[in-house]
Amino acid sequence: MAKKTTTAPTMKDVAAEAGVALGTVSKVFNHIPVGEEYRLRVEEAARKLGYQVNSYARGLKTNKTNTVALIWPNLRHPFFASLSDAIIGTLMKRGYRTIVTITNYDSTAEQQCIDLVRQNKVDGIIALTYNPNLEVDPQLPFVSIDRHFRAEIPCVASDNFGGGQLAAQKLLELGCQKLLFLRQGSNVAGEADKRRMGFEAVCRERQVEFESLYLPNEAGFAPFEAFLASHTHDGAFDYDGIFCNTDRLCYEIQKRLELLGLRVPQDVQMIGFDGIQRFDSDDYYCSTIVQPVPQMAQTAVDLLLSTDRSSLPALICLPVRYQPGGTTRDCL
């Protein structure tokens, strides 16, 4: 007796099981809107039959792989991890898989990652990079986070200038009279530089005494420690309000102030930027300017998958908000 063979179910089998037209099944699997009843019938039939979309075969036919590359400096930084998680989740809802590559701030590695993912025939790239001279294929959809390359590559960012303004306004509202801006970051210009600009604009407008210290990542924390020590006299600090350009820096500066015998927020009030929450709770590491991570992810994906790329905006700035988090007196 000949051995019975089984074949994988096809879209025709799913259509027959669901009692719908083959075109309806195709629309469901290609994420084209159909009536909710039809979508549920098709999905139930596919589950019952064990049908799976052959992404490779579809890619050969449509010249699409439903795969997007995410090029990121690292996933150790909580904000980078949070944003990448939101982008991957948003892409999954649209039927896309994600290839994640890590560059560790290496500009050469960034170009290599772009060349590598092009060879893998991805449908687009979302990147947070530090190489202003990246060579990007103009035919490959590309969205940048926080950094401009050229007019036809859209950039998604928080309202960094407005966030800097908000931090200065909040510190003044809470009674601070002499302010300090501290920054640690890349030497490559980007949207995040506007945090200092917004902060200083408010200080000048209000005629408030302030100082700014901004250092590259490679300088480490030693220069900050020396600066803090030089401005501490008899247990008093020369500034009563500090805005740090990231929550990570705010956390590190707070530790060093406390080693100098200064209390936060009683002696010095501090505000960071990013909106990082503690691992074990919904609490924030510090009072902070919160970046709208879900909206940033949704906007980046919408721009990347837009079918009309002829009039995409060069920059989209999304609103930020202030969140008390223990390093300002409104938390006492």
Task: Explain what the structure shows.
This protein has 332 residues and is α/β, with parallel strands linked by helices. The chain has 3 domains: 11-53, no CATH class; 67-158 and 294-318, Rossmann fold (3-Layer(aba) Sandwich); 160-291 and 321-331, 3-Layer(aba) Sandwich (Rossmann fold). It is built from 11 helices and 14 strands. The protein has helices at residues 11-18, 22-29, 36-49, 55-62, 78-93, 107-119, 160-173, 194-206, 222-230, 247-259, 293-304; strands at residues 67-72, 97-102, 124-127, 142-145, 155-158, 178-185, 209-216, 232-233, 236-237, 241-244, 269-274, 288-290, 315-318, 321-323. A 6-stranded parallel sheet has the order 2-1-3-4-5-13, sandwiched between helices. Helix 10 links the parallel strand 10 and strand 11. The longest helix is centred in the first third of the chain and has 16 residues, at 78-93. It is elongated. The model is unreliable at 1-5 (pLDDT under 50).
Task: Explain briefly what this protein structure is.
It contains eleven helices and 14 strands. The protein is an alpha/beta fold and 332 residues long. Strands 2-1-3-4-5-13 form a six-stranded parallel sheet, with helices on both faces.
What is the architecture of the largest domain at the second tier of CATH?
3-Layer(aba) Sandwich
Helix content bin: 25-40%
Q: Which radius of gyration do the C-alpha atoms yield?
A: 25 Å
Number of domains: 3
Largest sheet geometry: 6 strands, parallel
CATH superfamily descriptor of the largest domain:
Response regulator
Stretches where pLDDT is under 50 for at least 5 consecutive residues are 1-5
| CATH classification, class level of the largest domain | Alpha Beta
Structural class label: alpha/beta
